[in-house]
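Lab notebook, bench 4. Continuing the backlog of folding jobs that were queued last week. Each job is logged with the same field layout so the records can be merged later without manual cleanup. Today's entry covers CysZ family protein, a 264-residue chain. Filled in by technician R.K.

JOB TYPE: sequence-to-structure
TARGET: CysZ family protein
LENGTH: 264
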Amino acid sequence: MSQVTAALDYLKQGLSLAKSPGLRPYVIIPMVFNVLVFGGLYYFFGQWIGGWVAGLAAGWEFGGAWSFLNPAVDFLVGAAVVLVWIVLLGLFASVFTLGVQLIAAPFMGFLAEKVDIRATGRPMPEESIPAMTVRVFKRELRKTWYWLWRAVLILFVVLVIYFIPVVNVLASTVWFLWSGWLLGMQYIDFAADNRQVPFTVMLERLKSKRWMVLTFGSVVLGLTMLPLVNLVIMPVAVIAGTLIWVHELAEPGGSGPSPRKGGF
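JOB STATUS: finished
OUTPUT FIELD FOLLOWS
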């Protein structure tokens, strides 16, 4: 329970620190950019598909004894256009988090670096851009391999559970917890990667605080499903994940200070 409450506490700290002047630009800039991009796409596709639906119904009008149905047809066409906007909103909400992660990823690395330096007082390791590019690429390949084969295995288990009566209620829970673990790993790894901690070492550290990482990732995953909240949860999670790494997982005197609670 101490790890669970600590994870929630770090999220609260992340939310508080996201509003601080030194970190605020790394929260606002990606958020504004994503609102403009996704808002523009939502408006464009809504207008296009809605116009197409209205165009299909244009010229369809009953005459004679059936003319009394025309108001109902107009109502159905209008309802179909509204439904298009609602479906599009749900679709964009479901893919929004993925888009945010792709677009805002460079900002998140810098954000984790700022939080780490501010928390530890230690500069980042010096590294040339070509060396950093190669290192990050190898790490992403390693990370992809880590979750890919496990995701396939867990998906198989989930599918088996799904077809077992009563037990099948656990299928979605298993997949949610697995996704929460991955998300927690991803947000904590920003700080570990900045300090050039090997991926395998980072994983071993995560396992030492398994319930903290799982709680952290699962709460973040749940919050990403909420409209508007998913606009700000990513930078807050990066800040919280960096604090978890610095205060709970980094070696004393190595890539961070001795584990401790609290802010900077």
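OBSERVATION: The chain is about 80% helix and 0% strand.
SIGNED: R.K.
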